[in-house]
Amino acid sequence: MCGIVGYVGERRAAPVILDGLRRLEYRGYDSAGLAVIDQDELRLVRRVGFVAALAAAVPADLPGSTGIGHTRWATHGGVTEDNAHPHLDSTNRIAVVHNGIIENHMPLRARLQDEGVVFRSETDTEVLAHLISIFYKADSTAGPEAAVRQALELVQGTYGVAVIFLDHPGLIIAARNGSPLVVGKGNGETFLASDPHALSAHTREVVYLEDRDIVRIDASGWTISRMDGGGVSRAVEVLGEEWQDEGRGDYSHHMLKEIHEQPESLARCLRGRVVPDQGTARLGGFELSPRDIAAIRHLTVLGCGTSFHAGLVGAAAMEGLARIPASAEIASEYRYRNPVVAADDLYFAVSQSGETADTLGAVREVQVKGGRVFGVVNVVGSSIARTCGRGVYVHSGPEIAVASTKAFTSQVAAMLVAALSFARTRALGPHEGKAFGEELLSVPERVGEWLTAEPPGLMDAVELCTSGKFVFFLGRGVSHAVALEGALKLKEVAYVPCMAYPAAEMKHGPIALLDKRTPVVVVVPDDVMRDKTLSTIQEVRARGAQVIAIHTVGDDQTPKVADVCIPVPRSNPLISPLFSVLPLQLLAYRAGLALARDIDRPRNLAKSVTVE
Ligand code: GLU
Predict the structure, then answer these.
(1) Residue 275: which H helix or E strand, with range?
(2) Which residue has the CA at smallest separation from atom 9 of ligand 1?
(3) Is 607 a known active-site residue?
């Protein structure tokens, strides 16, 4: 969602900015733009649609070695060229790009209009350009940084913001509050981005801004200070290797590539953490003693979307294996309901990007109330990882497709590792711990074997799901979480209307919707609940609906009642989501292809949801 790139140096800024914006495309956006300082003029180019459209519109020889660029994910105002960023002040001498939402933009806009300012867009962002301009004009001796600082003092909401001034070529002022920004160190040049991925071709040395930091950037470096005054120095960090992994290779889409990367991403997540000889697991980032683990009274897993679904599995594993009462909560709901937080409870914040605004907000709410939150995050150094301070990286590697696949399985695997380590203290003997640990370690290879050939039945399932009215997904326990995730994938990638229910809940209402044109995908592993779920399948079939069953290989009962069967490997029930989600990922992918969708960049979606 929404990206910022900035450049100050000797080179022409536009190609560097366009390259950075291309690297942020995977985050999802609807329009793009850039502004560079060209002697006595700010040159502004904006386009609706992809960065390629912007690149085609930018003159190949556009001069200017200071500039800012943006990919917008519209929050306020339609997807139009006028609403695309950068936004200029009325004098056309100041350009602003902004990620986030200015919540009090309406009164600010009204005040500015009363003072005669004419707005050229419907965005919340434009108020910033005008406010900065007013403060800059009122006291030009104070300089650009003071003007940005004063403008931001009037603003409520979230921002990552970057500003250039025609009067100050060679300077970018940037600030962050709730929306990430990172500065990259070059040789006689300095970079700015909302995501280090945008910078990895140019530099590996970066500095992450913290909330309420404001930074002054020129070609020779940067100076960071706090919004409320006083300098601050932030450590230069070196980007890890995994950000270099790029491209689709021989795959037609990133999503398919990422589905097939799961054997490696799962192996990376588990490596060095599971210690089967001792029947346990170790997570370096947790720093919890057995005594601490024994004292945990409740675990709450916070997340949104796919990460929430992974959290449901994590909570079930923690309760089932470690006997710690546990639940998963949708972070955006949790943060605003004034939750009760106890000091001996534990919280996990799950997020692929580590920038999910709703989850970050929930983390802060828990911390304000004295709770302990550990991050379960993919992107190293991201806001949630840094705000939590403790936690586990899931190491799935860069996930470029907007619809998450390998991050989901790595999140689940990381929480299964945590559950094993807690369980060894609280509930499991060494032999049971060893068996669970060994089985976990065997998962990557077995996932790899399963993925070598597309499963029988997949294309029949695709046909049913793309030709019906809508699709039901059913499952119980952790398989309900998988059903939710399968339905989300099919909505995201194929735009097929779906709903997911706990299997037994279907008869309490949604069954009224069933008929011949509503295929039902049932996740039915061969566990203690299988026969109950088979009864649900019978109820579905009695209403004329066709059933696609994701079942355990060797189960001879489920195929007798399902129309389409997709077998997955046998496993411990708590581990089964790592297998049963695979056919649902492929189903969404193939359905998206069949319906000619934009698989890697589905409409309206963003990869990293940095607004509330
Ligand atoms: N709220 C701003 C807008 O709608 C910024 C959106 C974004 O973060 O891309 O223009």
Answers:
(1) strand 274-275
(2) 72
(3) yes
Listed residue (480, 463, 452) closest to 548, CA to CA: 463
pLDDT tens for each residue of 57-76? 999 999 999 999 999 999 99
- Which residue of the set 257, 406, 489, 607 is catalytic? 607
468 within a domain of the structure (yes/no)? yes
Q: Of the listed 2, 388, 465, 498, which one is catalytic?
A: 2
Domain count, the chain: 3
Q: What is the CATH number of the domain that holds 109?
A: 3.60.20.10
User: Are 51 and 68 in a shared domain?
Assistant: yes
- Tally of residues, the chain: 612
| Burial 217-256, CB ≥16 within 10 A → b, else e | bbbeebebbebeeeeeeeeeeebbebbeeeeeeeeebbbb
Asked if residue 612 has its Cβ within 6 Å of ligand 1, the reply is no
> The domain that contains 492 carries what CATH number?
3.40.50.10490
What is the C-alpha separation between 208 and 222, in angstroms, rounded? 12
Check if 101 has its Cβ closer than 6 Å to any atom of ligand 1.
Answer: yes
Q: What are the 10-residue block averages of pLDDT along the chain, 612 residues in total?
A: 92 97 86 96 96 97 97 95 98 96 96 97 98 90 92 95 97 94 96 91 92 96 93 87 67 96 96 92 89 96 98 98 98 96 95 93 96 94 90 91 96 98 95 96 98 95 96 98 98 97 95 96 97 96 96 97 98 98 98 96 82 78
> Whose CA is closest to atom 1 on ligand 1?
101
3-state secondary structure 178-205: ECCCEEEECCCCEEEECCHHHCCCCCCE
Of ligand 1's listed atoms, the one at least distance from the Cα of 101 is 1
CB 542 within 8 A of CB 498: no
Provide the residue range defining the domain that includes 566: 458-594
3-state secondary structure at position 344: coil
Ligand 1 close to Cβ of residue 159 (< 6 A): no
